[in-house]
Write a structure and sequence with these properties.
Length: 206
Amino acid sequence: MQEEIDRLHVEIDRLRADVAALGARAAKADDYVEICNLQAAYGYYVDKGRWDDAAALFTADGTLELAGRGVYVGRERVRAYLHHLPPYGHGVLYNHMQLQPVIHIDTEGRTAKGRWRSFMMVGRLGAEARWGEATYENAYKVENGKWRIALLHGYMNIYTDYEQGWHKGGVKLLRSIEGLAPDRPPTMAYEAYPDPLIAPYHYEEV
């Protein structure tokens, strides 16, 4: 009889461990979906010039760094940067598709890091049309119960004129925003295509 009781205790302990492991996996899966939706929402808001909505996706101390223009620190500075971008309207195309996520989550620490590619179609009717592609290396954390962007760093790999094509070279990157100096200098000096660029990885292997 005692042997049967001991066996049942062992089985119960195993089942409890299995349930705990499944719960942890489910929590990480939920976090993954939330982070993917968060990053996709950023892309959609930027596409349509919804600068305040995009800024609201950042933590209060979040940072933004794009195309080597320096680092903007804090949600309000991110908002100010975004409001200096061209307004969305008739004849404006500003697509920023968020693709190929590689995300690593610290569920207990409520932090995560993610690598993305952004494919861009940018232009104005009768003026210019450009292709762009960038690598994002981002950090996320939970703030007030929600996943938010703690760091967004976009490394511009290529920015080229649509009509000329990339075989003719790239458009010179804009290294500053008129009337809005960054809070910190760029974290990395680089040039986009035709110069080769590999954005630093936040991971060594998957």
